[in-house]
Write a structure and sequence with these properties.
Blueprint: E1 4-7, E2 10-13, E3 18-24, E4 32-39, E5 46-51, E6 58-60, E7 68-73, E8 78-83, E9 92-100, E10 116-117, E11 121-126
Parallel strand pairs: 2-11
Antiparallel strand pairs: 1-3, 3-8, 4-5, 4-9, 5-6, 7-8, 9-10, 9-11
């Protein structure tokens, strides 16, 4: 089992940056594809970014491509989401999630494919 704890959310002006972190418990972090999702009020949870087990393949939603960067540190059981050029469409609760897979597992975008979730961290963008 994996427990996930997000941090780094907050209030930022449009055009600003935030870095989210997700710390995972357990010794099997390196067996999980990791993803970031977000959910705004009244909307469904949507895929933002994901990274494979070895960290050499990433996948992004079109809405964040070129602005957000996902990375992971398997030695420290942590996945990050660097968010730059934040705009008024980005505010949401951001969740990290873990998808158990084999070494060659791809990043999946369906929330239902992920096994474990954090509690979420709020990101707010002001104009």
């Amino acid at each position: 089992q994996v427990q996930l704890v997000e941090s780094g959310g907050g209030l930022v002006q449009a055009g600003g940056s935030l870095r989210l972190s997700c710390a995972a418990s357990g010794r099997t972090f390196s067996r999980y594809v990791m993803g970031w999702f977000r959910q705004a009020p009244g909307k469904e949870r949507e895929f933002v970014a994901g990274i494979n087990i070895s960290g050499d393949r990433t996948r992004y939603a079109d809405s964040v491509k070129g602005r957000f960067t996902i990375s992971r540190d398997n030695a420290h059981n942590t996945v990050y989401l660097q968010m730059n050029s934040l705009n008024l469409e980005d505010p949401a609760v951001y969740y990290c999630a873990a998808d158990f897979g084999l070494a060659y597992a791809r990043v999946r975008v369906n929330p239902g494919d992920y096994d474990y979730w954090g509690q979420g961290t709020q990101v707010t963008v002001s104009s």
